[in-house]
Amino acid sequence: MAASLLSSFPVILHNVPDLIDVHLMSKLLESLGAKVNFTHNKDYKANHTLKVDCGNINNHVMSHETASKLRASLLMLGPILSRFGKITTVFPGGCNIGKRPVDMHIKALEEMGAKIEVEGCNIIATVKGKLQGKEVTLEKISVGATENIIMAATLAEGVTIINNAATEPEVLDLIEFLKKMGANIEISDTRITITGVEELNGCVHKIIPDRIEAGTYALTAIITGGKLELEGISLSDIRCIVNELKAIGANVELYNEGVMISRKNCSIRSANIATDPYPNFPSDMQPQLMSAMCIADGISVIEENIFENRFAHVDELRKLGANISIEKSKATISGIKSLSGANLCATDLRSTAALILISLVASGETIINNSHHLWRGYEAMHEKLNSCGADISISS
Fold first, then answer.
1. I want to staple 303 with a disulfide (CB 3.0 to 4.6 A). Which of 35, 272, 274, 280 is the partner?
2. Which of the following is catalytic: 54, 95, 203, 294?
3. How high is the pLDDT of residue 95?
4. Neighbour count for residue 20 (Cβ, 10 Å)
């Protein structure tokens, strides 16, 4: 959606989820002068379509109220600066899971010729003429910084090279989208080369399946001992977690137009797992995996190497009876046979999903407060799980 700002022609995106963040991003685009049409209905099985026309952008100042709620608002910095030469935005919002500094975004754009000032919570960026292609080496792998630089470089003058770039499937999908629009981008391992072009066209693109959503539902099957078919997912989509799923006792099989997930005829096995950048185990799957380890046989150790506040869900799992100890970036989980329902409070998107998963096997009723985070990343999760036998109700 942010990349659509690079073109004056309409783009059409298929397979777009009906999420809070999608609606916030639509609101931001419209506030800048874009026309946004999101065709969706209450049937979560429908293929939602989003049409964005940024041909009449007339504003380069982002809404503070909306942008401050949305981490992805920062991804508008590169495209707007590259196409229009100026933008005023704010430090982005999102889940409070740890430090996610914007320094790398700003440093790279400054190297490409932008003048960027930070005034309070505002980021004011301008460039005289065009951004200039440069060789940029990221100090650490960052999906957001990689995406921002790629988008900014598509209309820059000359060649931009990103070293130590993120190569997550979502980054590769963005690149495919940009190439359909006419961008000149090449990838070699963690090195991405972008040769600037004069303008980009419109295109039609289908968004890839969400590997984190798929992984979350896969763990639901493992935790409950059930069986789920994940339609539209391939093994390559979830290759970053397949080994870990199998290690704790999952059957992972190709089935029709998707993947069938079930638990082998055994208890959940304990595991030692560390989160690291792609293609290793993702931090966004760590809370859900911890839920499974709460009822696994033996002792598990999970090391969080990405976000320092990613253990906020531990206190809530303990309320259910889980046996978890924390020492710095490591959580040690001693699996127990049964948990009891409790009154919980979610802290972020993935913790909400993790608490729902483990609540499915806790005895009695569990109430999860502050669960609005869930709708930032999972469409109709309660409906999908209820269709498989869960008993989840939503109240305001």
1. 274
2. 95
3. 53
4. 17
**Cβ distance 81 to 44 under 8 Å?**
no
| CA-based R_g, the chain, Å | 22
Polymer length of the chain: 396
Kindly state the percentage of the chain with pLDDT values over 90: 87
Given a contact cutoff of 8 angstroms between Cβ atoms, the answer to whether 29 and 2 are in contact is no
- The answer to whether 10 and 202 have CB atoms below 8 angstroms apart is yes
Lowest mean pLDDT among 24-33, 113-122, 355-364: 113-122
Is 388 a residue of the active site? no
123-164 per-position pLDDT tens digit:
999 999 999 999 999 999 999 999 999 999 999 999 999 999
User: Who contacts 95 (Cβ-Cβ below 8 Å, separation ≥6)?
Assistant: 71, 347, 348, 349, 350, 373, 376
Q: Report the C-alpha gap between 228 and 230 in whole angstroms.
A: 6
16 φ/ψ angles, rounded to the nearest 5 degrees: -90, 125
Question: Which residue's entry shows tokens 């259910």?
Answer: 320
Whether pLDDT at 274 is above 70: yes
Contact 123, 77 (CB under 8 A): yes
Judge whether 297 and 264 are in contact, CB under 8 Å. Answer: no
